[in-house]
From TrEMBL:
Name of the protein in its database record: protein-glutamate O-methyltransferase
Top-level lineage group: Archaea
Pfam families: CheR, CheR_N
Keyword annotations of the record: Methyltransferase, S-adenosyl-L-methionine, Transferase
Sequence ranges assigned to domain CheR-type methyltransferase in this UniProt record: 1-237
EC number(s) on file: 2.1.1.80
Catalyses which reaction(s): L-glutamyl-[protein] + S-adenosyl-L-methionine = [protein]-L-glutamate 5-O-methyl ester + S-adenosyl-L-homocysteine
Primary enzyme class: transferase
Example GO BP: methylation
Length: 255
C-alpha cells in the first residue's frame, strides 16, 4: 500500500471516524478512483491535497464508499421467505426486534416493517442503521420515487404509502416502528441485543475477512437463540454458530 493512499485513508478516518482500513483495499481504490475521475485529478497526490483543503470532499468520498443504491424488497424472494416462513415461526411473541444493518435510504428497513405488518400480530421494532447521516435523514422522511417501489404490488402500495404527486411517502404508522441511527459496523458494538432477525445485505462484500469475522461475531452475540441472519444473494459466510436455513435466499440461523 503506497504512502499517499495510506495517508488518504488515515486522514478520512480521523475526520469521519470510519475505519477505512477494514474495507478491502481494491474496493477503496476503485471508489477513490471514481472521485478522482469526477473531479478531474490525475494522481493520488493531487486528490489528497484537494481532500485536505475541502472538508465536503470527505463526505463525498464516504458517500462513494457507502454505496446506497437499493429499492423496496430488493431481490424480493428473501423478503417473501422472511414473511412466509420465518415470521410465522416466531409465533406470538410480545415484541419482535429486527435490525437493518446498512439501511441506506431506509427501503430495506421499511420493507421489514411491511413484512411484519403482513405476517404477524406481534408488536415489533425495526432498528435501522447506516454510517451515512444524509441517508438516515432522508430515510426518516420516507419519500420515494415510483421506481423504488417497483417490487411492490398495488395493494401494498395503497396500504403502506401515501401518494404525493409522482412520489410515495411511507405512512406514519409504519414510520413509528422504525428507529434510524448512525452506526459503524466496522468499529461499534451491535446496536442492541436480543434481536429476532438481522438483515445485512450486500454490505460485508466490501469488508476484509478480518472485519467480516468481527461483524459476524457481533451479529451472533446480538441475536436471540434461533434468531435469523439474512445476507445478500451474492454473499456467503462460514461462521461458527450459524446454520444455513436457505442457501438460495442466504438465510442463516443462530445455533
Amino acid at each position: 500500500m503506497d504512502l499517499i493512499f495510506r495517508a488518504i485513508l488515515s486522514y478520512v478516518t480521523r475526520k469521519s471516524g470510519l475505519r477505512l482500513e477494514m474495507y478491502r483495499e481494491s474496493y477503496l481504490r476503485r471508489r477513490i478512483d471514481l472521485r478522482m475521475r469526477i473531479l478531474g485529478f490525475q494522481n493520488l497526490s493531487e486528490y489528497y491535497s484537494y481532500l485536505k483543503g475541502n472538508e465536503r470532499e470527505v463526505n463525498e468520498l464516504i458517500d462513494a464508499i457507502a454505496i446506497n443504491v437499493t429499492d423496496f424488497m430488493r431481490d424480493k424472494t428473501p423478503f417473501e421467505f422472511f414473511m412466509n416462513r420465518i415470521l410465522p415461526e416466531m409465533g406470538k411473541k410480545r415484541l419482535l426486534r429486527f435490525w437493518s444493518a446498512g439501511c441506506a435510504y431506509g427501503e430495506e428497513a421499511y420493507s421489514i416493517a411491511i413484512c411484519a405488518f403482513e405476517a404477524t400480530e406481534s408488536d415489533f421494532t425495526v432498528y435501522a442503521t447506516d454510517i451515512d447521516e444524509d441517508c438516515l435523514q432522508k430515510a426518516a422522511v420516507g419519500i420515494y420515487s415510483e421506481s423504488q417501489l417497483k417490487n411492490l404490488d398495488e395493494k401494498i402500495k395503497q396500504k403502506y404509502f401515501e401518494k404525493l404527486g409522482n412520489r410515495f411517502k411511507v405512512k406514519d404508522f409504519v414510520k413509528k416502528r422504525v428507529r434510524f441511527k448512525k452506526h459503524d459496523l466496522t468499529s461499534q458494538e451491535p446496536i442492541t441485543k436480543f434481536l429476532d432477525a438481522i438483515f445485512c445485505r450486500n454490505v460485508m462484500i466490501y469488508f476484509t475477512e478480518e472485519q467480516k469475522t468481527k461483524v459476524l461475531r457481533d451479529f451472533h452475540n446480538a441475536l436471540v437463540e434461533g434468531g435469523y441472519l439474512i445476507i445478500g444473494k451474492s454473499e456467503s459466510i462460514r461462521a461458527q454458530g450459524f446454520e444455513c436455513v436457505s442457501l438460495t435466499e442466504k438465510v442463516y440461523r443462530k445455533v
